[in-house]
Amino acid sequence: MTQALLFDVFGTCVDWRSAIARAVTKALPGVDALVFADAWRGEYDPAMARIRAGDRGYVALDDLHRENLHRVAERFGVRAPDALAQAWERLDPWPDTVAGLHAIATHALIAPCSNGSIALMARLAKHALLPWHCILGADIARDYKPKPAVYLAACDALRLPPEAVMMVAAHNNDLAAARALGLKTAFVARPTEYGPNQTADLVAEADWDIIAPDFLVLADRLVDAR
């Protein structure tokens, strides 16, 4: 039986693109905010890849976001305030997220398993009203998904074996990494995470344990599976 659910956050629980573009519009008038938001997000994985590869010690995502912000701003020929990096703490939940998490939380423990730091996740939860029972993820593992240590550290923190934990994500590669370690998996598509022209993660690419259109349906299917 599933006793806890871990959630990817950026893209799965919250719409980062719209909120980041809104913050860019306010801080950097005259810049194409959506293009800037996409470029900023585009630096996300390369920055973590250097840490995953061991070429750099662990650096919290807050700091990587700030470094990436200035790297992208230089390409755009503008100067961005450091405070703009805090926009990642003020992202909007998808319409089903909060109600769905509350429904799921009545049946199991829920926690983020995000590449965001504990500080970032706590402030984002306060802003978006995400009802986590605790905050797990990269900070406790001192590494970044999809490295095995991140998922296993979350299971260990909950004192649960991987088979009692379900990873929920809108990204097939995140679920594949979790499944390889014995976690159960649930796919919830977010087909506009990267805007109207998104081409990846539009559908489930494997027979994940649960495939649901939103968190409310996921909650129902968890009950049905008991």
What descriptive keywords fit this protein?
six-stranded parallel beta sheet, 10 helices, DNA polymerase, domain 1, 44% helix, EC 3.8.1.2, 2 domains, hydrolase, alpha/beta
Outline the structure in words.
It comes from Thioclava arctica. Its EC number is 3.8.1.2. Catalyzes the hydrolytic dehalogenation of small (S)-2-haloalkanoic acids to yield the corresponding (R)-2-hydroxyalkanoic acids. The chain is α/β, with parallel strands linked by helices. The strands form two sheets. It has a six-stranded parallel beta sheet, with helices on both faces. Strands 2-3 form a two-stranded antiparallel ribbon. Helix 2 (33-42) crosses helix 4. The model has no long low-confidence stretch (mean pLDDT 97). Helices cover 44% and strands 13% of the residues. Strand 4, helix 6 and strand 5 form a beta-alpha-beta unit. It is built from ten helices and eight strands. It folds into two domains: 4-15 and 90-225, Rossmann fold, CATH 3.40.50; 17-88, Putative phosphatase, domain 2 (DNA polymerase, domain 1).
In short, what is this structure?
The protein has 226 residues and is an alpha/beta fold. The chain has ten helices and eight strands. The chain has two domains: 148 residues, Rossmann fold, CATH 3.40.50.1000; 72 residues, Orthogonal Bundle (DNA polymerase, domain 1).
Describe the SSE topology.
Blueprint: E1 4-7, E2 14-15, H1 16-27, H2 33-42, H3 44-52, H4 61-76, E3 92-93, H5 97-105, E4 109-114, H6 118-128, E5 136-137, H7 138-141, H8 148-157, E6 165-169, H9 172-179, E7 184-188, E8 210-212, H10 215-225
Parallel strand pairs: 1-4, 1-6, 4-5, 6-7, 7-8
Antiparallel strand pairs: 2-3
